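Rotation project, supervised by the postdoc (A.L.). Task for the rotation student: set up a whole-complex structure prediction and record inputs and outputs verbatim in this book. Inputs entered:
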Amino acid sequence: MTDEIPMVEPNPPGPFLSGPLRFFQTLSEESYLIGNLVQRDIKSRYSRSLIGFGWTFLEPLLLSIVYYALFTILAGRPDQLYPLHVITGVIVWGHFGKSLQASVGSLTKGKNLIKQVYFPREILAISPVLAQFWISCTALLAVIPVMLYLDVRPNAQIFWMIPLGLFLSTILAVGIGMLVAPLNAISEDVQHLFRFIVRAGFFVSPVMWTYEMAASRASGGWLDAVLLNPMVVPITLVRKGLDGSEFTIPLEFLAYSVIFAFGSLFLGIAVFKKWEAKVVKYL
Amino acid sequence: MNDAIKVENAALQFPRGRGLFGGFKSLLGSKGLPEKNFTALENITLNVHKGEVLGIIGRNGSGKSTLLRLMAGIYQPDKGSVRVRGRTSLLAGVRVGLNEHLSGRENVHLYGSILGHKQEKMDQMMDDIIEFSEIEEFFDQPLRTYSSGMRARLGIAIASAVEPEILLIDEVLGVGDPQFREKSKERILSLVKSTSTVVLVSHSFALMREICDRVAFIHGGKVHYVGDPTECIRAYYELTGKK
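Outputs recorded:
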């Protein structure tokens, strides 16, 4: 006797390289669930505070004031556009760091849900990052008063540099996060290690400094080493998009950053899809 | 035989340690030291026929819930295979999908989508859920203003508004006040009747005798007996002793 519905394994494992394909299929099929989870993350973030969503603007503004003061004390009079550069750096790095930590901890944070109902778990790694993306885009509006004060006029490159910079930092965070999220389910040491990496990365990435500052002090091999950090290009892209100045990073490093970001996204999804079902029992 | 669920020689071990290195090795396929693992299911072979209500009984920690989660696709067996025909839906711990900061209505959408429903379906079921949960004017308030009984009622109302092909139930009865408990039992029973295939984990043997076609007794990660409910419950007491 044949049946209309075939007998299948629930949540079947697939070949390694098919992971990314199934991932994008899931994203489009489960848009209702993803939308609800993103809404939950955004609404619950500030719901217990009076200032509420205002913190999105206040946090980068206040941080930038502190870094500006610190920089002035340590290094003397900075460049006139420095306040704009530092707030941009704070927002883009904050976006990357929070997105990365959210996707690294996605399986452990969602363990109660994972153990009670089956749904594609990559959604847990994606939805907090989408929520963070929305919050970071809003936070980026905090640069407007700084730009008005400094009388900075952006030009046409704002339309491609800002989206590209934000996009690259987002897929880089998702990729690395999904790559290690299964390991973090086995042992939360991974999460603590990544918290350290985000803190240390703050100093080796152009948040308090800019690419031009590095280029004026270092050259040759040292400057290449600085550019190996895949976050230099995204942050610099957003800065150039805002102040309209020329993008002076060599194009091969732009290509390197793009390939690095897409490569880690692809690898991260493939590894996550390969292992997520096996690590549920560690949760 | 026309089976809805086929579990063949399924084994599942839970790791005791949290070692990153050992865990990583086992992901890569190494067996690991057996004494470092806890065996939850040793060798389970169990078929659930299409259209039957199968009960699962056993002592606490015998692996009943783990087996149910294996059927739902939450865990992957270490050995053997689990195959299902059609969409499964697991009713267990009905409050985990709810969020404090969202209103009752938003929670219906959130929890409903977690359970795998589409938006049109949830819009369609909204009135039914509002009526069943008896939350009334609180429905558009954030969940943090709810009493724990109200949360449980909302959870049950959403979770039981499903029409899966295979229904897996893990002890979800027994929340809220006596009136609501009675009402949710009725709801689950009517769900059991309208769903073709049901697997039910419960400690309520009276309920088992009443609604199950067959009962399986799980002990120490193995199936000890499958068959007639009364016989199975007798086998349970024979092995585990009275009290």
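Student's summary: The first strand of chain B starts at residue 3 and ends at 15.
Supervisor addendum: The CA atoms of residues 54 and 81 of chain B lie 19 Å apart.
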